[in-house]
């Protein structure tokens, strides 16, 4: 990855997350395009590019990213609602990164290498990662459905599903990068967090249900990861 792209990304991270107080965000959402903080925010983004590159030769890049950033932020402020703030946050960041990559490619004549798309191992790795999300969650739910305790404890909506997905993806990453010891730390960490709940519940069925689900989740992740590592295309 070229240093120019890293510098542009650094400017974005500093401008969007370090040099934008929460009070500015609140004012922008309240006043939208009438907020002075919106335009100050854009000036800071452009100025950071000059500072990080330590040159005025990047004025075209700074101007393009500044204007583009303003258009993206204005679109977010105009169209986002209270219920869609989370979605718009990710859309906003994806568009900013896409703009940065486009400017890097255009102004610095940087080739974008998509050769990895022809790599069989990449598609196999992607398939394994995708399987460990919702498909694996469905398999586990079907297998342990008959053991669901009658008085299951209340929790955040779909929290268990997303916790399982994250733990399987972490195990997948650890095994595929040959850091098997990290899997043990993850299992130990989850056991510590779960110990208090299970101890207070005084419910053997709930304990067994959690253990079955956890071991199934870890087992599936390990099997998929080992299969990806040892499968020769």
How many whole angstroms does the radius of gyration measure?
24 Å
Please state the structural category: mainly alpha
- Helix fraction, binned, reads over 70%
Instruction: State the distance separating the first and last CA atoms.
Output: 28 Å
Could you name the ranges where pLDDT drops below 50 across 5 or more consecutive residues? none
Mean pLDDT: 89
Order of helices and strands: HHHHHHHHHH
Q: Report the sheet with the most strands, covering strand number, pairing sense and barrel closure.
A: none
The tally of strands reads 0
Please tell me the total number of domains: 2
Which descriptor suits the 3D outline? extended
Protein name: DUF3307 domain-containing protein
Keywords: Membrane, Transmembrane, Transmembrane helix
InterPro entries: Phage_phiKZ_Orf197 (IPR021737)
Organism: Pedobacter polaris
How would you describe this structure to a colleague?
By secondary structure, this protein is mainly α. The protein has two domains: 3-107, no CATH class; 116-230, no CATH class. It is built from ten helices and no strands. It has helices at residues 3-18, 22-31, 36-53, 59-79, 85-107, 120-131, 134-144, 159-176, 181-201, 204-230. The longest helix is centred in the C-terminal third of the chain and has 27 residues, at 204-230. It is extended and about 65 Å long. The model has no long low-confidence stretch (mean pLDDT 89).
């Amino acid at each position: 990855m070229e240093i120019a792209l890293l510098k542009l990304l650094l400017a974005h991270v500093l401008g969007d997350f370090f040099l934008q107080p929460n009070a500015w965000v609140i004012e922008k959402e309240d006043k939208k395009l009438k907020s002075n903080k919106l335009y100050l925010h854009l000036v800071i983004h452009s100025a950071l590019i000059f500072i990080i590159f330590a040159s005025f030769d990047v004025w075209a890049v700074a101007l393009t990213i500044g204007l583009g950033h303003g258009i993206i932020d204005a679109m977010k402020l105009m169209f986002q609602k209270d219920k869609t703030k989370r979605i718009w946050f990710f859309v906003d960041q994806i568009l900013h990164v896409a703009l940065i990559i486009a400017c890097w490619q255009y102004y610095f004549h940087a080739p974008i290498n998509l050769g990895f798309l022809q790599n069989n191992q990449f598609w196999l790795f992607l398939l394994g990662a995708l399987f460990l999300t919702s498909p694996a969650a469905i398999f586990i739910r079907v297998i342990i459905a008959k053991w669901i305790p009658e008085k299951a404890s209340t929790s955040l909506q779909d929290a268990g599903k997303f916790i399982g997905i994250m733990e399987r993806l972490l195990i997948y990453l650890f095994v595929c990068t040959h850091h098997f010891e990290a899997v043990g730390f993850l299992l130990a960490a989850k056991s510590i967090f779960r110990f208090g709940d299970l101890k207070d519940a005084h419910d053997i069925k709930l304990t067994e249900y959690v253990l079955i689900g956890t071991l199934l989740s870890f087992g599936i992740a390990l099997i998929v990861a080992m299969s990806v590592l040892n499968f020769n295309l």
